[in-house]
Amino acid sequence: MKLALMVGLTWFSGRWVDALTIEGTGHLRLRANTVAREAAEMRCGGMTHRDDDLPDHIGTPAPYCIHCRKCCDCNANSAEDCESSTVDVGGGSGAVVFCNTCESSCSHCPALDSLAACPGGDCCAPGWKHQPPFNATRGV
User: Please, which residues have CB within 8 angstroms of residue 13's CB and are 6 or more apart in sequence?
Assistant: First the structure.
């Protein structure tokens, strides 16, 4: 009897997993779940230590990622047209985005993907000028 091995994603226990399947036997051996781990690491928004889920020096939650585009490290604007350390969200919420958390928290936000917001879903895209309400353009 000749068995074939198949490697790839398999639906297992309610999620996609990287697995090795021995075809014809129904046996499944889970491999290192690299694909699922990478997908989880590439989510929009970072963890915060605040009980009210406002941004802090640890991370920027997803609802605040759009404000990272105002940070100097997250756009190609001139130094006079960006914020170097924090961005006041405004609106009376008291929320402040810490620019040093934007790259790790907000670089994969597909829901915000537009040239007017976060080009390519990257809210910390230093190669793009941020010029709302107009679309971003490539910086120099």
Answer: none
Instruction: Identify which of 39, 55, 64, 59 has the alpha carbon closest to the alpha carbon of residue 47.
Output: 59
Name residues whose C-beta falls within 8 Å of residue 19's C-beta, 6 or more positions apart in sequence: 7, 8, 9, 10, 12, 28, 29, 30, 31
- Whether a cis peptide bond, with omega within 30° of 0, leads into 133 is yes
Provide the b/e sequence for 94-103 (b: ≥16 CB within 10 Å): ebbbbbebbb
Which residues have a Cβ under 8 Å from the Cβ of 92 and sit 6 or more positions away?
Answer: none
pLDDT tens track for 3-34: 454 545 555 544 554 555 555 555 555 444 44
**pTM for the full predicted model:** 0.69
Half-sphere exposure of 103 (CA within 13 A, CB side): 8
**H or E element, residue 102:** helix 102-105
